[in-house]
Amino acid sequence: MRAAPSCPRWALLALALPALALPAGRLSLLPHGQERGDAELEPGDDARSAALELSTALRFYGAAVRSLYVTTNGIIAVNEPSSEEKYLGQFPVSFGAIAPFMADLDTTDGHGNVYYREDSSSDVLQLASDYIKRGFPETTFDPSSVVVVTWKLVAPYRAREEDHALEEKRNTFQAVLASSDSSSYAIFLYPEDSLQFYSTYSKNDDGKIPAMVGFSQASTNYYFWEKPGSYNVIANDEDSIRNLHKSSNAGKQGVWVFEIGSSSDSIVPAKISDVLESLESNEQDQEMTSKPFMSDYGSTEIRQQYVTSSTDSTEEDQHHVTYSVPQLAAEDFLTSYQDVTGTPSTESFYSHQDFPTAKAPPRQFQVQQFPPQQPQVIDVEEFDETGIVFRYHTDVQQTCANNRHQCSVHAICKDYPNGFCCSCIAGYKGNGRQCVAEGSPQRVNGKVKGRIFVGNNPVPVTFENTDLHSYVVMNQGRAYTAISTIPEALGYSLLPLASIGGIIGWMFAVEQQGYKNGFSVTGGEFTRQTEVTFLGNNEKLVIKQKFSGIDEHGHLTISTEMEGRIPEIPSGASVHIEPYTELYHTSSSVITSSSTREYTVTEPERDGVASTYTGAYQWRQTISFDECIHDDSHHAASATQQLSVDSVFVLYNRDEQILRYAMSNSIGPISDGSADINRNPCYTGTHNCDTNAICRPGTGNRFFCECSVGFRGDGNVCYDIDECSEQPALCGSNAVCNNQPGTYRCECVEGYQFAADGQTCVDVDECQQGHCHPDAFCYNTPGSFSCQCKAGYRGDGFRCVLGEVEKTKCQHEREVALGSGGTFFPREIRVGHFIPQCDEHGNYLPTQCHSSSGYCWCVDRDGNEIDGTKSGPGVRPPCLSTAAPPVVIGPSVRPDTVPLPPGTHLLFAQSGKIEHVPLEGNNMKKNGAKALLHIPDKVVIGVAYDCTDKMVYWTDISGPSISRASLHGGEPTTIIKTDLGSPEGIAVDHLGRNIFWTDSQLDRIEVARLDGRQRRILFDTGLVNPRAIVVDPMRGNLYWTDWNREDPKIETSYMDGTNRRILVKDDLGLPNGLTFDPYSSMLCWVDAGTKRLECMNPNQLSRRKIVEGIQYPFSVTSYGKNLYYTDWRRDAVVAVDRTISIEKDNFQPHKRSRLYGITTAFAQCPGGHNYCTVNNGGCTHLCLATPGGRSCRCPDNTVGVDCIERN
């Protein structure tokens, strides 16, 4: 309900609320006990209830919860909780919980009771509703069901008998969960003196663990990983726990109210402070003022008053008790600050922001606890979605000394008599809390959802989770915005509403002297509510947008909601919007504007004639933000500014379902545009400065260009400064430096995290997180940890069961061989004793060697020798392990791809992940290297890239399987997982849309479509150990290696399998890797036997040795003049300049282990085409290119009637 302009807010609140029950004295709990039908939890130290099935679902973090579990330890779990040793002392908890007082509590031997029930009686519903309306006065919430859980006189866990003081203490508290069909609230009640202890002893040591009050969303379990849920911490130290009964967020001591679930997926606290006192030293009357939106100041006097009512109930002790809820009266708002000495107000807890969640991490600084002071004057102004302004300010001194973290790293903090303010340093723009480099292009990302009726259609068009991306050329004030995917039924009708993206143009509009754009005023942290009224039929659309500042990637974030009705614009029409101006009025953290705009619609041609018509709408918007009230210079900009918008471009693409807006923006004085200052190229955006430069206006039309911070050049052309290369020690130890355009970012390596200073990377002690099994020892190591079952148990440390460790086949054979003199010999080797070699997990090492003869050979997972792998003394064959590495339980890693930034990259496989290294020209940007994809229980061997769809493909020999994932982000997909032995090499034909791979166990080469369908065996004879495979799709050729120790070779054929022939067979040892450069038409390979890297033109047959004496190469790829190969001995990617035959560089990942396949992810596909490029070459199934033609082939499992083969 919107307050009338002439009526102050507090008067409305007092008048609007019903006569609620008020306390006759101290806070009382809601009725509870067996007489109220409560169930009682069994006595114990870690008891939990059976599932309490709910008649009305509880809304929690946006999800519906239909059953709850009550526990001794002060929590209500939304899923079945684990044993207490797995969660006490940790937050969040994986099973999800509501925690009014999470601690190690004990009700054994009659030490207290835990009662719980679901209740729908009218008296309890009314009591709960009244509490909620105290914290949320404007809510219309009407609960249909309430869950009441009471912990009464519960004791702490007693770790030491000598701690008699703690043994006698008892706590009483209550949690009330009220739900309707659409939303839920939580009420935590802490009566006076009800909390006598604030921490409990740990069962693991003699230390104390403070209690925890908060909310925790359940984790989400995926196949390979667990994603932690969001969480909110209310109190987690003894000082804040001690003051729970003294403070409040709902205007009454000991009462805490939270909205825990509705359409939102977050927790919203009430914000009615219990420390709202306005006592001048010589005044007796108590008075508060508020400022209604768009009206003069008004005031009302609130005098102490009580309205009483009561509900009879019976406690367990049979005493008559009056249950009452506090009325929203002056006594509650104006409690003396001295009554809660040492406790900041609710606003001090929340600091004008939502409290910490996993999505919005907490600040690195603890809440300040203030010493006793004299009563303070508190001004109250607020702002809510109806346009009422709320701003909280206390005279408790806030200084830069303890608030510097609230300023941007590119800002200075300055103290003022009544507080502090942040200001961006020279070269940066913003409000001090958020600063960006002047002149630097900006990106805005977000989501859009809506429910919009189009024309007279009775059915709305609904959409959600739709992407919005915007790019801003700041020195031109030019903003480009794209929204996808918008259905065609709506897309054309949204064309007139360019200001959906226009708000971004206002934020980064070109500033004239003395005027500020939206980012300079708000720092990109604000909410905007817009009402659009279309003239004529009076349709209305409401747009709500929230800007949340700059994220960890340096991008601004926005969420947009739209609801209402708009006129229909026919499909295929175009819309033209003339340049316009708009006045922005700023006053006390609120900006408003209103205007009428026209647009011209040109309908699609009919019979050669295109009709046009003009539409118009009224646009009213309110922008609310936080400003620093201490620095008067912040208000130096004019209260009224004019935004000038021109070059407006709107377009809807029906094929891509993308809505696009573009416009140029400048902000300055109210003018008709004729003033000279408006004509300076810096203000009109007609300069020729680089997009990463600042335009500095001079006199008249003169100007000069200056590169933005983080760039070098003359201003006309600016180059990014690579701070990471120029200052290698910039990020310190255990961190990597990632260069970004105009800046850089430090990231801790895996197993480390930032310390409280936000700069130093310190080891994560995973052993404190309880990852190992209770019957296992945990050993923390720098960057990692390990688990080992205790004596008498067997397992991997993460799961341990009674009994000695069962020996593997390899361990058993090794034990027998060592004890009996040895009876296990590979074929034909009978000299001396052969002792099988096992790895630390008991698997056969993939390479087995005879200690006496020096012969080595490869074995499969059962220890059987693989044909064609036996090598003479001194030569180790390149054997692959089929045993997947054990999954290390550490920080959760997502099994989906991290989107790659633009440019060309190297992709390479390392154990259970695929990593990438960006390429800048021919150089590896090693500080930009990071994991692209984590698949920890796989052995990835071959890697290939589809430059058309930006997909990476790989082979896994542990499954075995072939999979793919998008480099735009997303989870991997297995496309082939049957009839595979040991898939190794893989190649992508990006023109014909096929994949080819080798299988060294089944000794064959196959082809299939990119999605794994339509498999066909090309070759299953004449192969012993096929490994690398590459394609030349423009010429229709296929190449592969076979490292058969008795007859190594490199072969070729057409891509349809015809014209097979040996290309190289002389002077080869172990040809492991192969690459074909589409630009130079050179075929290159690495050989671990001859230790050479060689190249040749397949059409000329002459070979060239590029480098010799390399160590143990496995795979190779090419880009430009460089070849890049992985080396097993060096655990590195090595770069070689093939034009001068010199090693140029090498890159070793942070964690050293064997590297496998490598490929080049081109920024753009190489030019060219083949006969399969268009319409699949006219083939019904597989189209396989040949030189100058193509062959249509059928899959092996397709009956001929459905498939036509032809050349």
TrEMBL record:
Gene3D superfamilies associated with the record: Green fluorescent protein, Laminin, Thyroglobulin type-1, TolB, C-terminal domain
Disulfide bonds: 849-856
Signal peptide region: 1-21
Residues annotated as domain Thyroglobulin type-1: 807-879
Cellular compartments annotated: Secreted, Extracellular space, Extracellular matrix, Basement membrane
Gene Ontology BP annotations: canonical Wnt signaling pathway; cell-matrix adhesion
Broad class of where this protein is predominantly found: secreted
GO CC terms, sorted: basement membrane; plasma membrane
Domain EGF-like: 678-719, 720-762, 763-801
Protein name, entry field: Nidogen 1
Organism: Aquila chrysaetos chrysaetos
